[in-house]
Amino acid sequence: MNQQKIQQLIQSSKQVFRDCSLPNGAIIAANTDLPYYPKRAANYHFVWPRDASYVCVAAQKIGVEIQENFFDWLEDRPERFKKESLLFQNYAPNGLMSGGSFQPDQAGTVLWAIHEYYKDDLSKAMKYETLIRRLADGLANDWQETHFFHHTVDLWEEGKRRTSSVYENNHTYSLAACARGLLLANNIIRNDIWCKKAEEMKKRIDFAYYEKAGRFLRNRGKNVTDWNVDASLLGLVWPFEIIKPDDERMVNTVKKIEEEIVIDGGVHRYENDYYDGEGSGQEGGGAWPILNFWMSIYWTLAGNKEKAEKYFNWVLNKLDEDNYGNYIPEQIFEDNRRGVYPLAWSHAMFILAAEKMNLIPNETGPARQ
After folding, report:
1. Smallest Cα–Cα separation from 155: which of 176, 169, 132?
2. Using one digit for the tens of pLDDT, what is the confidence trace for 212-241?
3. Cβ(240)–Cβ(301) under 8 Å?
4. How far apart are CA 207 and CA 145, in angstroms?
5. Of 350, 369, 271, which is closest to residue 6 (Cα–Cα)?
6. 58/51 Cα distance (integer angstroms)
7. How far is 181 from 115, CA to CA, in rounded Å?
C-alpha cells in the first residue's frame, strides 16, 4: 500500500467535498466553476441526492461537517418534493429540477445517509423527522406490492431502460436501496407500513435471482429478463446489506461481474456501456473508480484482503500513470480521454473503501459538534 498516496488522497478528498458543498447546503457532483475542472467534460454542477448521500457518509469519516447543511437543503429546496414526496433525477443548486426521471434509490440512499450520521444517537435524527417521513412515505406510497406505480430509472440513468407497471419489473439495485432505507427509517421512527413495504421489496430482490443465469439480474419482472451484467449489484451487499457477501447467489453474481465487465483490472458499469462524460462515447465507456472501490469493499467484507487491495490499488496506480494527481475522475480510459474529474462520488468511494480497509488514521475520524 502506498501510504503517502493514500494520505494525499484523503486531503484532496476533504478539498473536493468542501468545493462541492455550496453555501446554501447543496452538494453538487462536481464543481465546474473551479480551474481544475476540464473544459470538455459534461456539466455536473447539479445535485444528485444519491451522490450527495455517499459524499455525506464519506465526509463524516474524515471530519468534514457538511451533512446537516445538506439535509436542510433537501428538506426545503428540491422542486416538487414537498408536494409529491418523491426525489427525481437531479436539481440545480437552487432546487429547480433539472432531470425529471423518478429514481427511487435516491430517497433510500438519503435515508441511509441520515441513519449513518446519527447512528450513535438516533434520537438526534428526530431533528429531521419531517424529512425522514417525507422520504419514507414517498417510497412506501408509490410501492404497489410488487413494483413502483411510477416508471423508474436506475442509478445509471439510462432513459431507455425504464421499468413499467405493466411488466411489474424493478431495478434490483434500486430495490435494495429503498428496502434498506425504509428499514433504517423505521429504526428512527417506528412505522410498520415501512417495514411491510421493505419486506415486499426484499422478496422482489430474491425474485431477481434467476436460476437460469445463475446470478442476480439487474432488472426482472413479468416477461422481462435483462441479461446485461451490471456492477451496481454490489450494492446488495454494501451499503444496503440485503444479501450477505458469502451468500452463494452473490458469490455467483460477483464472479460474473469479474468475468464480463472487469477489463484489465478496471471495473466497468455494465456490458456495452458507451457513456464517457465528455463526447459521443463512440470509443466506449471507461472503468469507474467508484466501482473498483465498491469491489474493494465487497472483497473486504468477504474476507479476501488480497483482492480488496488489488481493486483499490488499481485506481491509485492509474492516477499516477495518467497524471490525475490527487484528483479521482469519474472514469479512467485506455486512450487520451479525460472525462469528468474530480468527481465527488469517486472521492467518497475512495474514503469509504479506505475506511473499510482500516487505512484512515483515527485522528481524521468523524468530528461532532
Report:
1. 176
2. 999 999 999 999 999 999 999 999 999 999
3. no
4. 13
5. 350
6. 11
7. 9
Task: List, in sequence order, every beta strand (DSSP E) within 44-112.
Answer: 88-91, 97-102
Q: How many residues make up the chain in this entry?
A: 369
pLDDT digits (tens, 9 = 90+) for 291-336: 999 999 999 999 999 999 999 999 999 998 888 989 999 999 988 8
Going by C-alpha positions, the residue among 113, 102, 82, 109 that lies closest to residue 143 is 102
Q: Which residue has the cell 465526509?
A: 59
Backbone angles phi, psi at 190, to 5 degrees: -60, 130
| Closest of 356, 338, 72 to residue 239, by C-alpha | 356
Residue type at position 199: E
Phi, psi of 167 (to 5 degrees): -95, -5
Main-chain phi, psi angles of 186, to 5 degrees: -65, -30
Instruction: Output the nine-digit C-alpha cell for 336.
Output: 487520451
Is the model's pTM score more than 0.90? Answer: yes
What whole-number distance in Å separates Cα of residue 247 and Cα of residue 312?
Answer: 23
Cβ neighbours around 161 below 10 Å, total: 16
Residues 347, 328: Cα–Cα separation, whole Å = 6
Query: In sequence order, what are the residues at sequence separation of 6 or more whose Cβ sits closer than 8 angstroms to the Cβ of residue 319?
Result: 5, 9, 325, 326, 327, 328
